[in-house]
Sequence to fold (211 residues):
Amino acid sequence: MIRIVIADDHPLLREGLRRILQFEEGIEVVAEVGDGQGAINVARNMSFDILLMDLNMPGVNGLEAGRVIRREWPNIGILVLTVDDSDEKVFQVLQIGVAGYLLKDVDSKTLIQSIHKVYNGEPILSPAVTGKLLGQLTHPSRVKNTCGLSEREMEILHYVVRGSSNREIGTALFISEKTVKNHLSSIYRKLSVEDRTQAALKAVKLEFIKL
Fold:
């Protein structure tokens, strides 16, 4: 069962999300809150898998709450659902290591699929957000080395940037998922990042991978 907390300051939107999710087998909405502090409080008092969160909320906003939750409860997957697609906000949010970033015009089917993907450890970006991200990386910084990444690790990093899952990477490279995970751990350490989203961002920014 995927346990979800909804954080949004609009009661009608929370109700709409709950109605969509409550009829989905394997998904349970365990709490609803109206601001970032509420999301932090829930994380302190109960166990859940995914935080479905808006960014623009009163008091403690989604970005601030995301930083705290990622630091203190790294196993919680944060799936941002917002109308804010500004270049700066997209890049700020992805840098803290959220699991996904969707805009509120997403259809219910895509939302459900995204929840399952986040639960399985796959990063999610809407096409519009991907475009914003590429805009931020138009003038990436250059480096003279590859941070000590091996040829195999660079190969895996290419698949990560493309959004491939561990299983898909393993199949493509004829290696086990466990081997992929081991390589990813090494990649994160060498790039000084915490997850695959941050690794993909850094790989593109440092021009390891051309888009």
In short: The first helix runs from residue 11 to 22. DSSP finds ten helices and six strands in the chain. Strands lie at 2-7, 27-33, 50-53, 77-82, 100-103, 124-125. The two ends are 37 Å apart (CA to CA).
